[in-house]
């Protein structure tokens, strides 16, 4: 079952990460004029560090340390990020073709958050922490 106690914990951790990382992302893009990829990747670098520890210890209750888990976690984050934000950008640039780049990028970043969350959950639950969860 996908929606269970682990999923709810993951969503709570994701909410904390989303508030933290999205704030950083939108501030970098809209106030400091960093680009789309720089702003969105800063979100996931900072948020992923927090996510690793919260999800490892609290959501999935994994206590052992393994370089393999760290590497697979990073790979999952990178793949989820690239797929989510590339798909979001392609789709929103098409859907919002008549709007400014700023509007399209902000919309794509917002949709990218949702796509990333789904992909990241699947990867963490069924690949990264699969042996340690029931």
Which segments are poorly predicted (pLDDT under 50) over 5 or more consecutive residues? none
Q: Gyration radius, to the nearest Å?
A: 15 Å
Our estimate of the beta-strand percent is under 5%
Oligomer: single chain
Content-based structural category: mainly alpha
Give a count of the beta strands, DSSP E runs of length 2 or more: 0
Order of helices and strands: HHHH
User: Residue-averaged pLDDT, rounded?
Assistant: 90
Query: Largest beta sheet, briefly?
Result: none
User: What is the number of helices?
Assistant: 4
List key phrases describing it:
0% strand; elongated; single chain; 134 residues
Offer a quick outline of the entry.
This protein is mainly alpha-helical and 134 residues long. It has helices at residues 5-30, 36-59, 67-95, 101-128.
């Amino acid at each position: 079952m996908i929606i269970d106690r682990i999923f709810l914990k993951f969503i709570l951790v994701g909410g904390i990460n989303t508030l933290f990382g999205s704030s950083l992302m939108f501030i970098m893009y809209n106030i400091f004029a960093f680009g789309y990829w720089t702003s969105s990747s800063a979100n996931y670098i900072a948020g992923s560090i927090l996510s690793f520890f919260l999800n490892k210890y609290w959501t999935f209750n994994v206590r052992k340390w393994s370089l393999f888990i760290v590497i697979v976690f990073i790979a999952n984050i990178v793949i989820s990020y690239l797929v989510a934000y590339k798909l979001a950008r392609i789709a929103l640039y098409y859907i919002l073709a008549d709007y400014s780049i700023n509007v399209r990028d902000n919309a794509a970043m917002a949709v990218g958050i949702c796509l990333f969350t789904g992909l990241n959950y699947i990867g963490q639950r069924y690949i990264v922490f699969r042996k340690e969860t029931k």
